[in-house]
Amino acid sequence: MYLYILLFISVVLNIFAFAYSIRAARRLLIVDTNLEGIEETFSSFKSHLEVLYESEVFYGDESLKALIDHSNMVLDEIEKYDNLYLLTFDDEEQEVSDIA
User: Fold this and answer.
1) Angstrom distance (rounded) from CA 4 to CA 54
2) DSSP assignment string, 65-87
3) pLDDT tens digit string along 1-46?
4) What domain range is 92 assigned to?
């Protein structure tokens, strides 16, 4: 009798764990998509600043140079989060391939 109760509890907990993992995976996918969009936007912004900085009118302007440096720092931070996501995703793929 106790064995059936434990089996039932185990099945219910496994169903909840499976549902939670699917929901978490979907959220990670959304986060990854958003990070890619942000990274593209900041890369475009950085490129625009570099073109502006190298133009004859603004060549050597310290304010633009500071903006370029700041955009580089922001892009580095975005890449850290992107790399963290990739590490997590690669680990999950490896676990799945190990199981198969």
Assistant:
1) 74
2) HHHHHHHHHHHHHHHHHHHHHHH
3) 889 999 999 999 999 999 999 998 888 888 878 878 888 888 888 8
4) 25-99
Residue 53's nearest CA partner among 74, 69, 75, 77 is 69
Has residue 30 been placed in a domain? yes
Quote the DSSP letter at residue 59: T
pTM > 0.85: no
Q: How many domains does the chain have?
A: 1
CA atoms of 62 and 68, how far apart (whole Å): 10
How far apart CA 51 and CA 46 sit, in angstroms, is 9
Angle at which helix 2-54 crosses helix 62-99, to 10 degrees, equals: 150
95 in any annotated domain: yes
